Amino acid sequence: MVHWSPFVSLNKRYPWVQLAGHAGNFQAGEYGRLLKRYCECEQLCLSKLMGDILRPYVPGYYGVVQRDEQDYNLMDDLLADFDSPSIMDCKMGSRTYLAEELLKARERPRLRRDMYEKMVAVDPGAPTDQERAQQGILKPRYMQWRETLSSTATLGFRIEGIKRADGTCNTNFKKTKHREQVMQALGDFVDGNIQILKVYLQRLEELRSVLEKSQFFRTHEVVGSSLLFVHDASGQARVWMIDFGKTVPLPAPLTLDHRTPWIEGNCEDGYLWGLDNLIDILSTMLPP
Ligand code: ATP
Ligand code: MG
Ligand code: MG
To answer: What would the DSSP string read from start to end of the chain?
Structure first.
């Protein structure tokens, strides 16, 4: 699903593009800013990030505003400085649900026929004999299975959507799983432009080194957050972290390295492992 809306910025009118989430979650703001439907978790994260070394890698945050009785978080529109940008949303991490969501899904175990049907529609061979006999599956099993469809479980990130400068959009990457498929999609995204790839790679390497030092990052479980890639014909290319709706502080003194594989209870999210893989894939796309 891709949403286009003609946002009016200070001195130009450009189509704002949203590659994920619900259409109603965003509103145009003034001065190259935008409003995202309020979420307390995101507010807390963005506020803390404004005082962290990660600040240059997240949209500037300006607090909570109200419009038509709805609260919003006000932040920079990252597309504002680009002309006809190409955009990619990459969801980071080796799982996209919080540990607490898994616990909740287990609370009252119920066989879900709807989830069974969704599973069969995608992969008729996925249900076990028992699940087939019951014509239903448990939600935690469904949540874990879903992560294995894309590259989330195997590479620690997945492409959510791509919008190219020529206007073509693709948000159908749910089964883009293998390294070669990801490389194909990334190559398409930059239209074979090696220079743009180089700038992205450099920005990701910078981001990685900052993440490794960030107090915020060490002390938060970062789930369902994305890297937003933006470039245009001028050769300008940048990457930011967005979407902190499922980024939660860890109970002190717990910290994460974001690379250790997740086992229940350790809260690891695989964010840096995914970034390592993404950097490695981009590197192999460049000529030696
Ligand atoms: P979901 O949780 O389903 O991913 P969401 O409602 O939390 O969705 P986001 O993921 O934060 O929304 O954003 C959805 C899309 O909106 C992004 O993929 C991107 O295209 C666009 N977007 C979000 N924040 C910004 C921003 N600050 N500047 C420009 N575009 C943005
Ligand atoms: Mg998102
Ligand atoms: Mg979100």
So the answer is: --EEEEEE-SS-EEEEEE-SS-GGGEEE-STTEEEEE--HHHHHHHHHHTTSTTGGGS--EEEEEEETTEEEEEEE-TTTT-SS-EEEEEEESS-SS-HHHHHHHHHS---BHHHHHHHHHH-TT-S-HHHHHHT-B-HHHHHHHHHTTSSHHHHSEEEEEEE-TTS-EE---TT--SHHHHHHHHHHHTTT-HHHHHHHHHHHHHHHHHHTT-HHHHTEEE-S-EEEEEE-TTS-EEEEEE--TTEEEPPTT----S-SPP-TTS----HHHHHHHHHHHHHHHS--
ipTM over 0.95: yes
Distance 18 CA to ligand 3 centre (A): 12
For a substitution probing ligand 1, which of 7, 9, 22, 36 has the most ligand atoms within 8 Å of its CB? Answer: 36
Centroid of ligand 1 to alpha carbon of 2 (angstroms): 11
Per-residue pLDDT of the chain (288 residues; tens, 9 = 90+): 456 555 544 445 556 789 998 888 999 998 899 999 999 999 999 999 999 999 999 999 999 999 999 999 999 999 999 999 999 999 999 999 998 888 888 888 899 999 999 999 989 999 999 999 999 999 989 989 999 999 999 999 999 999 999 989 999 898 999 999 999 999 999 999 999 999 999 999 999 999 999 999 999 999 999 999 999 999 999 999 999 999 999 999 999 999 999 998 899 999 999 999 999 999 999 988
